[in-house]
# Entry
Amino acid sequence: MRRGLLLLPLVLFLLMLGFLFKGLYLDNKDLPSVLVGKQFPAFSLPSVQAGEPAVTEQDLLGQPSLVNVWATWCVACRVEHPVLNKLAADGVLIHGVNYKDDTESARAWLRDLHNPYQLNISDPKGLLGLDLGVYGAPETFFVDAQGVIRYKFIGVIDERVWESDLAARYQALVDEAQP
Amino acid sequence: MIRFLSVIALIFASFSALAAIDTYEFTSEEQRARFYYLSSELRCPKCQNQNIADSNAPIANDLRREIYRMLQEGRSNEEVVDFMVDRYGEFVRYRPALTAQTAVLWFAPAVFLIAGLLVLVVMLRRRQKVFKTAGEEHLSPEEQQRLKALLEKKPRND
# Structure
């Protein structure tokens, strides 16, 4: 019994060591979004495209969609763009939030690189971005048919991550919407 | 040489003091103080080991602007912090709120300290007891005599 007690500090120390060692490799870049499970924030913003009506959160209702936050200054968004084009061609409903960007450059981007977005929300001051807790681009929100944010993906959507994880999440929202 | 060194020192001094200062006009000293307090209490979501006062990331800039706007509107410190937590999560607080989840963070240091003190007290008590019993009981009267004789014996002066 007393021998066991002598070993106690060592055991505690080793436990702590294991704990800290694991902490070294924890990736805390991807913050869990507090908005998951909440209604998409209310907004009313113009469209990127000239002549189109303003967009509000009501326009997101009815069908599940991906809301992709992007900008022309965002290098990673350029990498992501062809993947979004392909997903849109496969029938995935994607809306774009043009975040803190110059509208002219955004239009040129959509013209030259193809427009995968159904709605093009223009957020030059980052106001919607702030309500969404965006801290970089690209970020993609999975919104269900009732307009509730169900998942947030931070970073570039590539084919690998779409196949392995995101496709199933999107499909689940689609299945849910069609009983 | 001294002049040169002092110029160098001045350069560094000015840099550290001027980290990310914006041109905001405050209506009172109290408001300015609250602005600096809040921007140093809140953590930048992008550059994770800086507060938003120190960071020059665009998002930190936006959040400072937002704090300023809310202070102009006359919001309280709690309202500003809650606004940020609602959007960016508990993560943005450098001083986490006291909840069931964070209780360990808040109380573990005190618990460790008390546990350590308890162990120390118990060990000292035990040691003292062993010492006393050794002195009183483990020597027979003859041994006590001998010990006394040895202790009183004058050291030899060689």
